[in-house]
Amino acid sequence: MSSYNQNPDREALEALWMPYTSNRYFKDNPILVTGGEGAYLTTSEGKTVFDGLSGLWCSGMGHCRSEITEAVSKGIGQLDYSPAFQVGNPLAFEVANRVKAITPDGLDYVFLTNSGSESVDTALKMARAYWRQKGQATKTRFIGRSRGYHGVNFGGISVGGIGANRKLYGQGIEADHLPHTCLAENAYSKGMPEKGANLADHLEELVALHDASNIAAVIVEPFSGSAGVIIPPVGYLKRLSDICKKHNILMIFDEVITGFGRTGHAFGADAFGVTPDIMVLAKGLTNGAVPMGAVVATDEIYQTFMAAGGPEHAVEFPHGYTYSGHPVACAAALAALDIFENDNIAAKAAELAPYFETQLHNLKGLNHIEDIRNFGLAGALQIAGRDGDPAIRPFEIFRKCWDNGLFIRSGGNTIQIAPPFISDKQQIDTLFNILSDALTSTK
Fold it and tell me: Which range of residues forms the domain containing residue 398?
């Protein structure tokens, strides 16, 4: 049995090509996490760090929850793997029914994946295939949004609108993009900004450009997380949904970050009062304990595939993953869903959100802050660049916070904050005290 090498040398770190990491810098200045409990991480030096991003937006109910640990331990001892094609395991059906029960009415069929990126690509394939099954095979184009993030597979980076995630890889799939909703006149808004619902009308221009007969779906996050918590203006998502319905275009919500309580509701769809045709999930589904994702679709979409499926033995949707509905992931998901429901996690987030909002906006006026944005238990600071580099100050702030016992995320020109739902006010105070000191000391 292997054990953690608490202090590996440079050579021991070299073989791993790390994701979304400055590998050259990291391997000379490593940060190594060896444990987690509740709202805290433990480093290889034995230091305790408050997890101000809930892992990567995924561990909102706290680390190493005994309920999940016990369920996974029991599950892997009973069934470590079950074939996913033409064979099922009972836990996968239970997860699907549990997810159906808590998602908005009308979202009734659950396809299980292993990540948010896989869920996005599944949703895009599902949308294209749906229109082919309806006899409208020209509906292939997707509409994403500038500064949107939809994972890292080719479909996801194509509909995503973050240039740095796209520029190295060349041509993706057919996609166009709506403008983002981060407007200067809405700077320092608390919660949903008042101005900008009219930005949804740009979809009419894209329909005029491409024609609705060529557009399969619009995909957006209820609020954009990885681009720095960009919140939809009041009325924007409803307007976007109405335009989709008007032109017979599917609407996909990417709720990988906004799902399972982050908005103070179960899902962003609940928080903003708009139900999509397809919902993309991951992260909080297992509280980050085991990789898992899901795509939830309407009865109309599912039944269209069934009706066009051919002979009864034929596969209606030729898509899936070796690990779809993995029994160990399902065990983790069921335990996480129990916690989510029994501990009223969304209500906990909603209760703490106003205090979080106040403390976040109290940073206004500190060094380099250009904007502050928030919704639920998610917040971001937009940081001014230095010497033409928009990312250097956020990166320096991130490292200073880590050194002083706080994990937050630097992403582009933003600092992103998403504390665990189990946090208390004292922990929120500590978070912002450390962050304030890091901002003040950054040149």
Answer: 10-61+344-441
